[in-house]
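task queued by scheduler; priority normal; single chain, no ligands, no partner chains; default sampling; output format set to structure tokens
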Amino acid sequence: MTPRERVHAALRREPVDRVPIFMWFHPDTARIVGRALEIPPGRVSEAMGDDVRQAWVSNNHCMEGIVHERDGQGHTDPWGVEWIKEGPFNQIRRSPLQDAGADEVRAYDHPYGEVEALLANMDALSGAGGDWFVGCDVSPCLFEMVCRVRGMEGTILDLAADPDLARHELERAAAFALHVSELACDRYPLDWLWTGDDVAGQRSMMLSPDMWRDMVAPHLAQIMAVGKERDLWVAYHSCGAIRPIVPDLVEMGLDVLNPVQSNCPGMDPYELKRQFGDRLSFMGGVDTQQLLPNGTEAEVRRETERLLEHMTAGGGGYILAASHTVPPETPLESIFAMYEVAGVSRQEIEDRAADIRAAG
């Protein structure tokens, strides 16, 4: 099966030759694996046999797609968010509306003039169609996007003290996400539309489920509908304890939930599979806080086997992935063991790496 055929079949709960894989590597992990395979870090997912190719066309490109070499380097994105490299990732140094009054907040709008440049990030995947499962990432769409522009503290205060202003901010973010989603889905040969917002912490949601349903969910449903109306799968990413809104996401027509942080309340992957597996597929669930960095190779192998057994019960509906980026403390042998359990042998990985080296 081609990677594209494999993912589509798994999401349709049809037989596959092996479970699909879409793994995210911490930048330091990619460098470590790249050195081991003698290939560039950017080619690691290809060598490992991952099935999905995806690009950011919204603000996550500014956070993850723009890479600085040294700590302290940074940039200001089209939204006016100032980023600075701290450790391996870009972090927000200043949000453009963090000290703004209500009038300035209402006058702010999203960077429609930069849409073409953002969409151009998909061009690198132009040769991926046919063999690879291709995704377009329009996240963050709503709450998290407002937090980046307004600042977390300002966003929470607006939600509590000035709901009308908060609604305005969410409406503006939604309009931009909807616009980019429509253009991307009409322009590129996609397999899924990737949406998302981090709306929860490790223990609970950052806003109440009722507030989310009132102020966020209607906009998210419209964005998801862009993909559904074009017969695309729709994926949604939110870290943390989002169990209270999973039924709402299912009702919206969500196809794939990510990342399934199993150590958060209500996010046990086996229980989620039991309750929603007939209507929802899952991507994630391999613990990155304890299992991968601290577990032995045997433990990683055993837990991955158990995860695959439960999450593919009934005929698929699962994409193997970690619950966050694979941390650099993860032993190489544990990474290769996780892939081997999924049906990708070390030799197969080495052969692909050799082909990458030979191609220059």
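post-processing summary
- Residues 3-359 form a domain with the TIM Barrel fold (CATH 3.20.20.210).
- The CA atoms of residues 287 and 323 lie 6 Å apart.
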